[in-house]
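Let us practice reading a record.
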Amino acid sequence: MTIDQRAEVLIQALPYIKAYNQKIVVIKYGGNAMVNEDLKRAVMGDLLLLTLVGVKVVLVHGGGPEITDLLKRLGKKSEFIDGLRVTDREAADIVQMVLAGKVGKSLVGYIQSMGGKAMGLCGMDGHMIEARRLDDVHGYVGEIVNVNTQPILDVLEKGYIPVISTVGCDGEGNPYNINADTAAARIAASLGAESLISMTDIRGILRDPADESTLIPAIQVSEAPQLIREGIISGGMIPKIECCIEAIRRGVKKVFIIDGRVPHAILIECLTDEGVGTMFY
């Protein structure tokens, strides 16, 4: 890039920086961007940059591949019903260990290695994510009853990026595996977030799944049911979109679905005119 082009990028970002200053942005992080080390470092760098320009970033992460890998090594088969992992008590303990331990702490380490400040939190900490059993079929998969945002706000106030593992608990301390999309939507709504950004393995919502040029850049929530009926939104994307809609209805201003495989997709979506994914409003 020439000097003039670099200056233009910075000038274009300025109004977005002003708009997001001191606002909360929740990032739901998972998929291929979480497995590829180069992409992981790029994502953590994006979060750090947003923090340095005054955005209050909250990172909510999953860790499905790591959970599946450890269960396999321990001789336990992974079973999914309606897109949710069937979780017995032993598997719930493994989910807690992987998410709140290995995955969460590794993300904290990445941010801190770049000079940032991060604090790992689990939904069980400070009774942040209160949950109950979703049903008898899925076992220790939780349905969120309440979100206590105080631990998150305390960490943000001290200048740290909260890195939240999506494990909840009930009043008796039983751990529950919480879907990361669901948790991110509820956390964003409870925080009154300016926006929720969900990183996925696709570019966004496409009218033709085989043609990325058919990306739909913006969708009003009232349009989503028709897109589902037409099959444009289908399969595993339906529960993700339902979480987006839930977040909007609970007060989040904008929800973005972006391709986590694109380096610096978060910065492009937040700080440029073009964006890279689909925005729900």
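A brief commentary: The mean pLDDT is 90.
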